[in-house]
Write a structure and sequence with these properties.
single chain; 149 residues; mainly alpha
Amino acid sequence: MKKFAFPMERVLEYRTHLQKNEKTILMEMRFRHAVLCRERDRTEARLLSCGREREEKCRKGALVKEIEGFFPYMEGLRKQLESQEKAIRESQGRIDRQTQKVVEVNRDKRGMEILKEKQFGLYQALSRKESERAIEEYVTAEGISAARQ
């Protein structure tokens, strides 16, 4: 019997290629998301540090001009923090959409693998039947030749 050949092997290879690409894109997105989160955390830490420094100066009795200098800087940090939060939310949305793509590609690829497994099972069943038939023919032929002697 001829060797098993899956007629849709190229499609399965393509789906495997797609799966790897989509997973790579997802990993890159997650890396960028983590970078955004670290930047946000640093900005948040600077804002808290600035707030503590302002409070400390207030307690020590600093001049009003010195204390007023903190407000524009802190407001800038707050705006930066808001824009970073927005970027993080958008990034998470893109990650969620990409995750769905990966799930779909995995599902498609798995469907092709199941089809291949079924076709291979049919091939094995046919191969067994063919082997059984050949053995029966051999045994029958041997039995006939033994009976003639």
